[in-house]
Write a structure and sequence with these properties.
Elements: H1 4-9, H2 30-36, H3 42-46, H4 49-62, E1 67-69, H5 76-80, E2 85-88, E3 92-95, H6 109-115, H7 117-129, E4 135-141, H8 143-152, H9 160-168, H10 170-194, E5 198-203, H11 211-231, E6 238-242, H12 249-255, E7 260-263, H13 269-275, E8 281-286, H14 288-293, H15 296-308, E9 314-318, H16 328-340
Parallel strand pairs: 1-4, 4-5, 5-6, 6-7, 7-8, 8-9
Antiparallel strand pairs: 2-3
Helix pairs in contact: 2-4, 4-7, 6-10, 7-10, 8-10, 9-10, 10-11, 15-16
This protein binds coproporphyrinogen III.
Length: 342
């Protein structure tokens, strides 16, 4: 039988709605911190199928979530392509950068895809252990977000260097995006062949782009990646997440053929209902900071989100990832409220 999670992604509303949370595996869980302390570094952790599978399953064992998300990172793709990637404590990821006038040094696509094979093994192990009614979500970074790390070396900047490439070095940017699209498509196919039931494309740095540039470097590459995936015979539902798209969210859903769309904390449910066609599932919104704060305001916001999307396919989620300081009781409270339904 198809799980209600997949039914929602196929366009059917459900009450109660399915729930999972971005970064549900991670530092807010003491069992994650214990496991993490056994790994030499974060990349080793991601490339260890035993540890990554355990981290993927931890939130499912603790909470009644409907989906597990593969434990990995969007920057594994750059690592596999031959970029030096490091995760620094308190700073976040640091990536070796490329120059616009230098050819893209790159390992052959087959080599890159096979370097990622420990991730496929993680997926196999998780799918074997996961109850049949729980969904396993595979993922990768969406092309522009991955390209941004290769150009700027880190996230959280004002993106001006990478954004200028759209004007100053459009063909170098296109070559980089095309290389990322090809390996990402093969990587996601590897995850689906290993047992992922749905995939999500994280476009974390979509904020603040002019509409024509948004079309060129976000919508077109996301659409090209999906076209390539379908071409490779991948049929599972796909969730897009153009974080910070704001008023151009409608451009995204009309030009990228996703089954579901992730919503960040900043757009209103009213805007979403006016903008996103009802055959596309919506997921997201809840502010991770409200999840930390808890109390009546959290309960009220959860109910408001459920009510706003009562008549359309909806998967409950946050507008961004669970933060390390989040109390477990608050996550539990949200799961309970969502299970009650509206
Ligand atoms: O539970 C899950 O969501 C599964 C695993 C997952 C991770 N990263 C693990 C991780 C997923 C889906 C990601 C995606 C990811 N990684 C994104 C897209 C989503 C988003 O947050 O916008 C981005 C931009 C990255 C890049 C990245 N990786 C950053 C910016 C950081 C540092 C920030 C931080 O929280 O420390 C990471 C490291 C990272 N990836 C951690 C985890 C659990 C923390 C590292 C640790 O445990 O030591």
């Amino acid at each position: 039988m198809t799980s209600s999670f997949i039914q929602v992604l196929n366009g059917q509303p459900k009450n109660p709605v399915p729930i999972w949370m971005m970064r549900q595996a991670g530092r807010h869980l003491p069992e994650y911190l214990a496991l993490r302390s056994q790994a030499k570094n974060f990349l080793d952790f991601c490339y260890s199928p035993a540890m990554a599978a355990e981290a993927t399953l931890q939130p499912i064992q603790r909470y009644d979530m409907d989906a597990a998300i593969l434990f990995a990172d969007i920057l594994l793709v750059l690592d596999a392509m031959g970029f030096n990637v490091e995760f620094e404590k308190r700073i976040g990821p640091l990536v070796e950068t490329i120059a616009p006038d230098k050819p893209l040094k790159q390992v052959p696509v087959e080599t890159a895809v096979s370097r990622l094979s420990p991730v496929y093994e993680t997926v196999r192990r998780v799918r074997q252990k996961l109850p049949f009614d729980k969904v396993l979500i595979g993922f990768c970074g969406a092309p522009w977000t991955v390209a941004l790390y290769a150009i700027e070396g880190r996230g959280g900047t004002d993106k001006s260097v990478a954004r200028s490439w759209a004007y100053l070095h459009p063909s170098a940017l296109k070559n980089l995006l095309d290389a990322i699209i090809e390996i990402s498509a093969l990587y996601l196919k590897g995850q689906v062949d290993a047992g992922a039931d749905a995939v999500m494309l994280f476009e974390s740095w979509a904020e603040g782009l002019p509409d024509n540039v948004f079309q060129q470097i976000v919508c077109q590459p996301n659409a090209a990646l999906i076209a390539r995936l379908r071409d490779l015979g991948v049929t599972v539902p796909i969730i897009g997440f153009p974080r910070g798209a704001g008023t151009v969210l409608g451009n995204f859903v009309s030009s990228v053929p996703v089954n579901g769309v992730g919503l960040d904390t900043s757009i209103s449910p009213d805007f979403v209902n006016q903008t996103v066609p009802t055959n596309i599932a919506v997921q997201g919104h809840l502010d991770p900071l409200l999840l930390i704060a808890g109390g009546e305001a959290l309960d009220q916001r959860v109910r408001d989100i459920l009510t706003a999307y009562k008549h359309r396919p909806h998967i409950f989620n946050l507008g961004h990832g669970v933060r390390p300081e989040t109390p477990i009781a608050h996550v539990q409270r949200v799961v309970d409220l969502v299970r009650e339904g509206v």
